[in-house]
Amino acid sequence: MKKIIFTICTICLVGCKSKEMITVSNANLSEKESILIENNSNYSVASIVGIGAELIKKEQEKAINKKLLERENKLKNIPGLVVTTIDETNGKKIFKATMQNEILFKFDSHELNKNAKSILDEMIGIINEIPNTKIKVIGHTDNIGEKGYNILLSQNRAAAVGNYLRNAGIETKNITEEGKGFDEPVSSNKTEAGRAKNRRVEIFLSNDY
């Protein structure tokens, strides 16, 4: 009988070795593993690694979401930009920054003006805050003039934006450009107000997490 009681007490002592609750902290994985090993002798190494990896994943997701929120707020504070967000089915978030051509270029030109460079300089600082941001620049026009000419004009305008970003140090592999001409209007081309909305450059920012 005494032997049975002694055995039970021994088990209790092993199982209750630590009175402290294990909580998520900012400690790195190896420290978490040490705490788990010290306080919970019944944990397997596989369990410890699994729990540590899950904690790290959650912390990473939290940090990413914080950076994306900061990016969104900063983009929306740039005068001349209209910023919208696109939530993809895989959970990724894409930012679309739209600028009207009148803000960026002179009439029938693809040379960036001073105002355009000021806007892009602000964007470059925001882009560089998150490494390996993918940038897609798409140029659009209204339907005045021949289709081929408008496609070329929209391509040149998209390329002007892309080249400015490259010259600022953003890696070429992360930038693509495309000219749509007047194939994708966002408003009616029957009025000047509608055509003005259609003359635009869209910059899409995305990241692989």
Automatic annotation (TrEMBL):
Matching entries from CDD domains are given as: OmpA_C-like
| Localization in the cell | Cell outer membrane
**SUPFAM superfamilies named in the record:** OmpA-like
> Predominant location of this chain?
membrane
> Which keywords describe this protein according to UniProt?
Cell outer membrane, Membrane, Plasmid
> Got a GO cellular component term for this one?
cell outer membrane
Matches recorded under Pfam families: OmpA (PF00691)
**Cross-referenced PROSITE patterns:** OMPA_2 (PS51123)
- Residues in a coiled coil are none
The OmpA-like domain, residue ranges = 90-209
Q: What is this protein called?
A: OmpA/MotB domain protein
